[in-house]
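Case study 2.
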Amino acid sequence: MLQTVYRWIDERLEISPIIDHALKKRVPDHKHSAWYYWGGICLFFFMVQVVTGILLMIYYRPGPDAYDSVRQITYEIRFGWLIRSVHAWSANLMIGAVFVHMFSVFFMKAYRNPREFGWWSGLALLALCMVFGFSGYLLPMDELAFFATRVGLAIPDALPGMSQLISALLRGGPEVSSATLQRFFALHVVVLPAIFVPLLGFHLWLVQKHGNALPPSEEAKPAAERRSIPFFPNFAMRDMAVWLMALNLLALLVALFPLQLDVAADALKPAPVGIHPEWYFMSQFEALKLLGHVIPGTLGEFVGLGVFGVGMGMWAAIPLFDSRVTTSLRARLTTWFGLLFLAALILLTIIGYIEVL
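Prediction:
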């Protein structure tokens, strides 16, 4: 009976090539293989985000009652605190995993020909993840979320001509208000998923098309000395074990540090002392502060945003600079550039937290 059902489905959907590909696919097995699991970790946390986000939407009310609805979810609805805490912690873990995945791809040179579009689509997914985090941060409409969002939206205002655009599209007026909340909610649950999901599908298709990249040290070995394991069931079972460890970490964080709710936002109050953005924006926030000390005023903001733009452009253009046909000198320069970028990211984040704590 099962074979009959399978043949009936296969005649209409032609799933046999997909199953054959999964059964024949092999994954390189070497001392750096642990980095292959980070892409799956990112996918796992995204799926947690989807499930918990849908559950939260059942009770969340964007608009003037937003704060009360989040208070109800956190303190009155059975297990509401759990779903909200899982959603918040998995968001942070997902962004952290995407950062680790990006740097593992970078240092393993997995952006080289023919994987350039995998690198670019991955960067776009990281950018969308950060926008997801920023847009979702305001939704509780408590004091910390309100003032952190107001600080974040003030940064693009420094660009010429951006102030009116930001006010019209995001703020819905000159100040952060319930209109801003409505726009952020629509961005968070409609616009961003509509962009993210197809892009994620394209990224996963590229991974299946090109396979897992070998680091340079493994590529230098003769083909006969390279080891690999079947994707199914060997690698798939290991991937599931890693997902289970990620779930355990998520459960531990939620149990030890459940998400609380600050007091309701009040635009007439002064901003709390030590207001700062989320950790994944802290390095950019601190860099702008340091540049503001060197070049004060509007010019310093222009210079800071310009430096960020150039840096991001260079980071995205890495596959064009260090391809398979480039010299070893370019490869070494690229590696040092990545190490410098990683060190600056970590150092600026640490300095930022030292200053606000």
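The mean pLDDT is 90.
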